[in-house]
Design brief:
Length: 396
């Protein structure tokens, strides 16, 4: 796999409908484009990302793959190693991709991050066979290549990196590990003494801040039915500790709790007066739907899968990074970070009314700058025509 075959400007672009793709809001770094040059079912795909983006298409069109690539970049930006991010790297290689003379095959992904440093592009080439490793990385901004890496010696577990200096020496060269994202390591390696080094640092930090601010969400109804310990009250990826989070947030933010109860009235069957939490004798808690008029409350464990997924996703949309289990950059004020929620199967198990209500709620919260949302749906009718929603249609 040639490290120089990263994505170029000739990559075709997919079409989108509804909302235009705008720039970053204020000073918050945000991912505005996802590039899948060669990843699973995708070849030469450039996906535009707005404040609320929905991937739509038939089964096999690559909706889940696109979200997996985004999450992989996010985890690499947080400093994770390749083997934990890609446990099945061969599965990421496009089908029918042929090996080179050395028996190597791989995949290529990337993104564009807008922010104070302007548009910054990150492109990554990963070798999946015969062993998993980074073979090429490129960080560009302001018309310049700020960082480039290449695998020079297959016998060493490192890549040769070169980053922009613009001082007495135009470029600094040094080895970097071949199992990490080099961009995430630059703040530890670049001194920041010259204007060129400051430019590299600004671009790298912008990309890392945007990628680390990601919460991948996939509510699992079968795990949400049991009472749970209160814990720290941060919502997990599967939302199985929904009751513990409600136990924490019902008093911390009465306004948003009221909004969640209002959403439950629309998305859950029967009369819903309130969304409450009951403390049980064994120290656990469970969530309840208050029915009002002297009627017994309904434990959420008795709800259908669609109702549980609806409640969990509504909670995600109405909370923030202090409640969701995501570790943003601690050294950067939260006001300068934009949390992005990734939600595969956003409409899974939901009826049309529930899906439409959630989409409207998401559009409202994204318009406020509270979060950004990238989701995938089987039926895009819940998203089309909703103000602020960008629908990206994928074709198998």
């Amino acid at each position: 796999m040639d490290a120089n075959t990263l994505l170029d400007d000739s990559t075709p672009r997919l079409t989108s409908t509804n909302a235009p793709i705008g720039g970053v809001s204020g000073a918050r770094p945000t991912v505005t484009e996802l590039r899948l040059s060669a990843f699973r079912t995708h070849r030469g795909a450039t996906l535009p990302l707005g404040p609320l983006t929905i991937f739509a298409g038939a089964s096999g069109s690559g909706k889940s793959s696109a979200l997996q690539a985004y999450e992989a970049l996010a985890r690499l930006g947080a400093g994770e190693e390749l083997d934990s991010v890609f446990p099945d790297p061969v599965g990421c290689v496009p089908e029918r991709a042929e090996a080179d003379r050395q028996g190597r095959r791989g995949f290529r992904i990337g993104c564009t991050v807008d922010g104070p440093a302007g548009p910054v592009q990150l492109d990554l080439a990963v070798q999946a066979e015969p062993e998993l490793r980074v073979v090429g990385e490129r960080l560009t901004g302001g018309g310049q290549t700020l960082l480039s890496t290449a695998l020079r010696d297959p016998g060493r577990s490192s890549v040769q990196a070169a980053w922009h200096t613009a001082g007495a020496v135009a470029v600094t060269r040094a080895p970097l590990p071949d199992d990490r994202l080099g961009t995430a390591l630059l703040p530890l390696r670049v001194a920041g003494k010259t204007q060129g080094q400051l430019q590299v640092l600004a671009a790298a930090e912008q990309v890392v801040v945007a990628l680390r601010s990601v919460f991948a969400c996939d509510p699992q109804p079968h795990r949400m039915r049991r009472p749970v310990a209160t814990g720290e009250g941060r919502l997990s990826r599967g939302c199985d500790n929904l009751a513990a989070v409600l136990h924490r947030t019902r008093d911390e933010c009465a306004k948003r709790h009221a909004r969640l109860a209002a959403a439950a009235r629309v998305g859950c069957a029967g009369t819903v007066e309130d969304l409450a939490v009951e403390e049980l004798d064994d120290g656990t808690v469970r969530a309840l739907l208050g029915r009002g008029q002297g009627r017994d409350a309904t434990p959420v464990g008795r709800l259908g899968e669609g109702e549980l997924r609806y409640l969990a996703l509504a909670l995600v949309l109405l909370t923030g990074p202090g409640v969701l289990a995501v570790d943003q950059a601690a050294e950067v004020p939260s006001a300068y970070q934009a949390l992005t929620v990734l939600a595969d199967g956003f409409d899974r198990c939901l009826d049309r009314r529930q899906a439409r209500q959630l989409m409207a709620l998401g559009a409202e919260m994204c318009a406020r700058g509270h979060i950004r949302l990238v989701g995938a749906v089987a039926d895009a009718s819940c998203a089309r025509g909703v103000d602020g929603v960008t629908v990206v249609d994928l074709v198998p």
